C-alpha cells in the first residue's frame, strides 16, 4: 500500500509537494526530520528523528516544488510518526546528525516492530535555524544501506497575521528566504458550525520570496461565517532528496509559525 505522507513534521505538505526526481514504487526509503521548536525564552531547539523502511510512497516533500497554489485538503489529520503496511529497516546502531558543527547520535529504538532513530522522549538539542546539517547512516547488512545526506535547516522567519475576509484576498507578508531552495507552506485549519475540533484544512504552497496572497475563492471555506476554532500555520520547508542503492534518502527541515514548544 502506498504511503502518502512520509514525515511527521511535514505531513501537511506531502500531498501537494511532489518531486519528479524519484519513481514511486517498492524500494528502500530513509527520512531524516529536523523540526524547529522554541522555548518560552526564545531559544531554538530540535529533536532530530529518522526512520528507514521498504515500501511504496506516492509523494515526498519537495521544497523546490513551488506552484503558488491552494487546494482543499479535506479532513485535517494530525501528523503521525509511524506508518502501516511498510517494512521497517535496520540502519545501524545509531544515526549521526551534525548540525552547525555539533554532532548528535540518534540511537536505534524498536517498539512493536517499528524501528526508529531519535533522542529519548522529551530530549532536545539547541541549534540555530539555518545551520548546515550532515547526516551519516552507518547502514546494516540486510537492512538500509550506508548513506550520507547533507542539507540546511529551515531559517526562522516572521509573518504578518491574517484574519478571515469574505470578499478579499488574504495578503501574506513574511521574512523571505536567503536563497531559492525553500518553500512556504500554509495550512488553514477550521471547524465548521456543525463540527468539533479543527476538522477541515486548506493547504497552500508558495515561492519563499516574502510576498503572496490567497484569493478569496480559495480561502472562502476558512473565512466563512459560523466557522470556529480557526488556525493558520505557516511552515518554511527545506528538503534534499538523493539516491542510495535500491532506494532514496531525504533530509527534511521545517520551521513553523507558531513555533511549537520543545
Write the layout of secondary structure elements.
Elements (H helix, E strand, L loop, with lengths): L1 E2 L22 E10 L1 E2 L5 E3 L2 E9 L11 E7 L11 E2 L5 E6 L2 E10 L2 E5 L6 E2 L5 E6 L9 E6 L17 E4 L8 E10 L8 E8 L3 E4 L1 H8 L4 E17 L2 E11 L5
Parallel strand pairs: 1-5, 2-19
Antiparallel strand pairs: 2-5, 3-4, 4-11, 5-7, 5-10, 6-16, 8-9, 8-12, 9-10, 12-13, 14-17, 15-16, 15-18, 18-19
Mean pLDDT: 89
Number of helical elements:
1
Cα-to-Cα separation, first versus last residue: 33 Å
Secondary structure class reads: mainly beta
General form: globular
Quaternary state of this entry equals: single chain
Using only CA atoms, what is the Rg?
A: 18 Å
Beta strands, count: 19
Q: Estimate the helix proportion, in percent.
A: under 10%
Order of helices and strands: EEEEEEEEEEEEEEEEEHEE
Biggest sheet layout: 14 strands, mixed
How much β-strand is present in the residues? over 45%
* Poorly predicted spans: 1-20
Written overview of the protein:
The protein has 262 residues and is mainly beta. It is built from one helix and 19 strands. It has one helix at 216-223; strands spanning 2-3, 26-35, 37-38, 44-46, 49-57, 69-75, 87-88, 94-99, 102-111, 114-118, 125-126, 132-137, 147-152, 170-173, 182-191, 200-207, 211-214, 228-244, 247-257. Strands 1, 2, 5, 6, 7, 8, 9, 10, 12, 13, 15, 16, 18 and 19 form a 14-stranded mixed sheet that branches. A three-stranded antiparallel sheet has the order 3-4-11, with no helix packed on it. Strands 14-17 form a two-stranded antiparallel sheet. The radius of gyration is 18 Å and the shape is globular. The protein starts with a strand and ends in a 5-residue tail after the last strand. Mean pLDDT is 89; it is low at 1-20.
Amino acid at each position: 500500500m502506498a504511503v502518502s505522507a512520509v514525515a511527521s513534521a511535514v505531513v501537511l505538505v506531502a500531498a501537494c509537494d511532489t518531486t519528479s526526481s524519484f519513481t514511486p514504487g517498492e524500494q528502500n526509503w530513509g527520512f531524516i526530520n529536523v523540526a524547529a521548536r522554541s522555548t518560552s525564552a526564545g531559544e531554538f531547539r530540535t529533536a532530530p528523528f529518522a526512520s528507514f523502511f521498504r515500501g511504496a510512497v506516492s509523494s515526498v516533500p519537495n521544497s523546490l516544488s513551488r506552484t503558488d497554489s491552494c487546494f482543499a485538503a479535506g479532513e485535517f489529520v494530525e501528523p503521525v510518526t509511524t506508518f502501516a503496511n511498510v517494512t521497517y529497516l535496520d540502519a545501524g546502531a545509531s544515526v549521526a546528525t551534525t548540525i552547525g558543527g555539533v554532532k548528535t547520535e540518534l540511537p536505534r529504538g524498536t517498539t512493536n516492530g517499528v524501528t526508529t532513530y531519535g533522542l529519548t522522549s522529551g530530549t532536545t538539542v539547541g541549534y540555530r535555524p539555518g545551520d548546515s546539517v550532515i547526516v551519516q547512516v552507518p547502514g546494516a547488512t540486510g537492512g538500509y544501506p550506508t548513506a550520507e545526506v547533507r542539507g540546511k535547516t529551515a531559517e526562522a522567519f516572521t509573518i504578518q497575521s491574517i484574519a478571515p475576509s469574505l470578499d478579499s484576498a488574504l495578503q501574506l507578508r513574511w521574512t523571505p528566504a536567503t536563497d531559492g531552495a525553500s518553500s512556504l507552506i500554509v495550512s488553514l485549519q477550521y471547524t465548521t458550525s456543525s463540527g468539533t475540533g479543527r476538522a477541515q484544512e486548506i493547504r497552500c504552497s508558495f515561492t519563499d520570496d516574502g510576498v503572496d496572497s490567497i484569493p478569496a475563492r480559495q480561502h472562502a471555506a476558512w473565512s466563512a461565517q459560523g466557522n470556529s476554532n480557526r488556525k493558520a500555520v505557516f511552515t518554511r520547508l527545506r528538503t534534499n532528496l538523493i539516491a542510495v542503492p535500491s532506494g532514496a534518502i531525504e533530509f527534511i527541515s521545517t520551521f513553523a509559525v507558531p513555533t511549537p514548544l520543545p
